[in-house]
């Protein structure tokens, strides 16, 4: 039996975490067993890599390689077994974040990203990706009220503009998979958009 793999993307402060709890509840109400996870992270090794990559100074290529190393362990240890067990895997960020942040934000070329994605994922892709999109200045204002910035969140607005462009490019390349959600509106209005997509993709 094969489960569903759904990912959630957007620049920091877009409101992913706020919505994912409702999305998990929506699938559970249908009787699905949900595995809620995140990247970088989700397994003990990948959480260790997360702590390094979000806090220790490093160059952009090292950052990219650690993101994909964490992803490989996450896939092998958590995502693939959960899918094999028929679970609905809800993943807060996946490979689109590498293309947006390390590709768009840091400026690393697709000739580095594309082979890593092929290699590490070996064909495993989310069937649906919600891209929570909003202007970087609005996301920064939300973050400012919420928590202290880590090494990546501390980047300037132009970095997040480029990351947003990276998500847009991914959405354009895979329009069936990536659904853009207007995340600039109030949480209940964001949820209404998400729920409409869920009802259309997964009718009762
Ligand atoms: N639609 C919304 N309107 C206003 N504020 C919001 C909205 N959604 C979330 N917030 C607030 O913005 C902050 C960031 O939200 P959240 O943590 O859900 O974002 P995120 O996308 O998961 O961020 P990150 O990727 O950095 O973890 C929180 O304080 C949250 O309460
Ligand atoms: C998977 C992935 C993540 N990032 C960045 C994006 C965020 O700044 C952090 C994760 O923090 P969050 O609060 O859990 O959203 O990591 C990245 O740069 N590249 C990636 O592949």
Protein model, in words:
Belongs to the thymidylate kinase family. Keywords: ATP-binding, Kinase, Nucleotide biosynthesis, Nucleotide-binding, Transferase. It comes from Roseateles asaccharophilus. This protein has 204 residues and is α/β, with parallel strands linked by helices. 56% of the residues lie in helices and 13% in strands. The chain has 8 helices and 5 strands. A 5-stranded parallel beta sheet has the order 2-3-1-4-5, sandwiched between helices. The longest helix has 25 residues, at 60-84. The radius of gyration is 16 Å and the shape is globular. The two termini are 19 Å apart. The model has no long low-confidence stretch (mean pLDDT 97). Bound molecules: adenosine-5'-triphosphate and the ligand Cc1cn([C@H]2C[C@H](O)[C@@H](COP(=O)(O)O)O2)c(=O)[nH]c1=O.
Describe how the helices and strands are arranged.
Elements: E1 4-9, H1 16-29, E2 34-38, H2 44-55, H3 60-84, E3 88-92, H4 95-105, H5 110-121, E4 128-133, H6 136-144, H7 157-173, E5 178-182, H8 187-201
Parallel strand pairs: 1-3, 1-4, 2-3, 4-5
The protein binds adenosine-5'-triphosphate and the ligand Cc1cn([C@H]2C[C@H](O)[C@@H](COP(=O)(O)O)O2)c(=O)[nH]c1=O.
Which ions, cofactors or small ligands are bound in this entry?
Answer: adenosine-5'-triphosphate, ligand LXEULUCI
Q: For the terminal residues, how far apart are their CA atoms? A: 19 Å
How many beta strands in the DSSP annotation? 5
Major β-sheet profile: 5 strands, parallel
Structural class: alpha/beta
| Topology order in helix (H) and strand (E) letters | EHEHHEHHEHHEH
User: Stretches where pLDDT falls below 50 for ≥5 residues?
Assistant: none
Number of helices: 8
Please tell me how large the radius of gyration is: 16 Å
Estimated helix fraction? 55-70%
- In one word, what is the shape? globular
Strand content: 5-15%
How are the strands of the largest sheet arranged? 2-3-1-4-5
Mean pLDDT: 97
InterPro entries: P-loop_NTPase, Thymidylate_kin-like_dom, Thymidylate_kin_CS, Thymidylate_kinase
Keywords: ATP-binding, Kinase, Nucleotide biosynthesis, Nucleotide-binding, Transferase
Catalytic activity: dTMP + ATP = dTDP + ADP
Pfam families: Thymidylate_kin
